[in-house]
Structures are given as structure tokens and as C-alpha cells.
Write a structure and sequence with these properties.
single chain, mainly alpha, 65% helix
């Protein structure tokens, strides 16, 4: 038991902080990416009973604008993680939605499995799957379209902004790889 508990002490050194320039580039990308998704959602999608912005995009913004070297921030992971997780979440809601906690647990856990098996692990995908289950009637009414609009389309917009903004700086390069 002592050995097990001793693992929780940590031991690695804390990563270094980032400079103000990195902070500003991360801010710029996230304000533009989330801003575009929010604007398009309110102006064009919501009047048509669709949406283009979901909570998991906040976490995606952290990855694709601030942790741009992370494998989980790369295009395959961003797009694939959201779409695959959206499909899994919708399927779990449709199959197990009568017992919401079961649908939620299976949606998130099976989304993780699916992302691992397809090499598209993107942590916000877990939230995308959970939103498919607990998101309410507006989300449920979308059915499997949810995986593509908003999940896939919004992730694609975040990617486009990441490609443009992250490469403006001579010290930043995005993506590290595509596939």
C-alpha cells in the first residue's frame, strides 16, 4: 500500500513557464477561433435550429493555440477526436439514454476507446461525447448530425484559425504532423 501511495507524490520537475509572446499568440488564436464559432453559431446556425459551438471547444482551444506541439493538438486528433466522440456519444444516448448516467459513462469511456484505437486521442473529445448525452433536446434533436455539425465543423474552424495564427510567429510551427 505504501508503494502505491508513494506514486502520488510525483517527482518530476514542474515545466517552465512561457513568455509573454507565447501568451499573446495563444490568446489571439483562441479569441479568433472561439469568436468565429460563436459568431457563426448565433448568426447563421441557431436561427436554423443548429449550433456551431459546444463546451468542449474551450478545451480544444487550449490545445491547438497554447499546447501546439502536443500530439493531442494535431489536426488528426482535433478533427477525428471530435467526430468520433460525437458519433459514439450520440449512439450511446440513443441506445442507453433512458438511463442517463449509463449513457454518459459508456459514451465517454467508449469515446476514449475509439479515439485510442483510431490514433485520434483528443481529451476534449470526452466532453464532446458527454455533451451528446447530456446536452438536452437541442443536441438530441440533431441525432448523428451532431458529430458533424457542430463537432466536426467547429473543430475544422478551430483548425483553420490554428493554421493561420500559429504560423504567423517565426517561433511557432503548427502542425507538427497531419496524419
Amino acid at each position: 500500500m505504501k508503494e502505491y501511495l508513494s506514486k502520488m507524490k510525483g517527482g518530476a520537475k514542474s515545466p517552465p513557464g512561457v513568455g509573454l509572446t507565447e501568451v499573446l499568440w495563444s490568446w489571439l488564436g483562441s479569441v479568433i477561433g472561439i469568436g468565429i464559432c460563436g459568431y457563426l453559431s448565433s448568426r447563421y446556425f441557431e436561427p436554423r435550429d443548429l449550433i456551431l459551438i459546444i463546451g468542449s471547444f474551450g478545451a480544444s482551444a487550449v490545445l491547438v493555440y497554447a499546447a501546439i506541439k502536443s500530439p493531442m493538438a494535431q489536426p488528426r486528433n482535433l478533427i477525428g477526436g471530435h467526430i468520433i466522440s460525437g458519433l459514439v456519444g450520440v449512439a450511446c444516448y440513443q441506445l442507453f439514454g433512458g438511463t442517463l448516467w449509463v449513457a454518459a459513462a459508456l459514451g465517454v469511456s467508449l469515446a476514449i476507446v475509439a479515439m485510442l484505437l483510431t490514433k485520434t486521442l483528443h481529451p476534449p473529445g470526452g466532453a464532446t461525447a458527454l455533451i451528446a448525452v447530456i446536452g438536452g433536446n437541442k443536441i438530441h434533436d440533431l441525432g448523428f448530425l451532431y458529430a458533424f455539425i457542430p463537432a466536426g465543423a467547429g473543430a475544422f474552424i478551430l483548425l483553420l484559425v490554428a493554421l493561420l495564427v500559429n504560423n504567423l510567429s517565426k517561433n511557432r510551427r503548427y502542425p507538427e504532423y497531419w496524419l
